[in-house]
Amino acid sequence: MPYQDPHLKQSLSGGIYNPGPSKQEVQAAQQRAFLRTPLRGNRHVAVVSMAGGVGKTITAGFLGQAWGEARGDRVCAIDANPDAGNLAERFAGQATVGADGRPVRALLTVRDLLTDDAIAPVDSVADLSNYMTIAGRLHILPAPTSVDDVLSAQEYRRAQAIADRFYNLTIIDTGTSIAHETHRAILELADDLVFVVGPSMDAARRVKAMMDDLQARGYGDLLARATVMVITRSSAESSLARSRRGGGVDPATLASYFARRVRDVVRVPYSRGLSDGMAADFAQLSEDIRAPYLQAAAGIAAHFNGPKTPAPILSRQRVPRVTSAQAVRGRRWPGLGARTKAGEPLPPATMKVTTSSGQDIQDLNQLDELDTLPRYGRREEYLNDRRD
Hints:
Distance between the termini: 59 Å
Number of helices: 16
Number of domains: 2
CATH class of the largest domain: Alpha Beta
Oligomer: single chain
CATH topology of the largest domain: Rossmann fold
Order of helices and strands: HHEHEHHHEEHEHEHHEHHEHHHEEEEH
């Protein structure tokens, strides 16, 4: 039977025939509903990574703008990067007006806010807006501009307390050092975590180390309800083999590994403009770039008022060993199906590695040993050692 467009049938029938909403329309409506989940009290979402340049700041800004577009309450972002963070500059440039449209003397920072609040307390949203840089419906509290001017843990808590008086939802752009006292204060106040990782073995090892540290320090519940954003760093036309030779790894493999430790994993496609450090604006993104950030924002918001998530029991489970014969047959293993869209699993977790004999195998067995690989000069050495 030839395909019949149900909406064409509706038009020809004068509206008598109603096919109902499509699957895509239902999913879009559900996503909008999740994004608009009402908040009881305040919510703090920390965006973290132990490596610079992987897309942490972009992720913090885009999540904030996604929520700002969809929600009716106030959304702000605090740049708590101790290394002179550039969240405000990346999303709004060197602003000459505050969030209320009034001129300001320069790009005011969280340091100005704390200094002035100690003299005359900030007691209205109009007062606080003088220190905010506007980026769409997201208000950004910039980091101090000097690398020598670093917020202490107590100063961060003060800044967060001020923001909480007037903003329901706060996104925190963090630094890369988990040992810094400010980072520890951020974790203490965080309700949700977003890890950002690029598809390289080094980036994966660093994020894994951060997760292990959080688990050991009693943040298992926070880790279990976290989101991992896997940022694709290679352009679509580049060879995956070349990426591997440069220390890269298949994003699907990383997604499958981290899906066993956190609540959600989202893969973000490559964007030359964003990777080149151009000015960022969520409203101007192409749909293929907007979609994963909306997916992540909706997934987090859906649990704003839900129960705490228990630690995943699969976090220490060994991945089944895969032989070359099984790899040829393309067998899928249970427990590795991270999700990118509602109801749509990721491709099977495969990372082909060319051994010294030229044989391609499916290397799922090294996922639990990401921190072992850097000791080897080449993956071939690691695989040969495993077979000996």
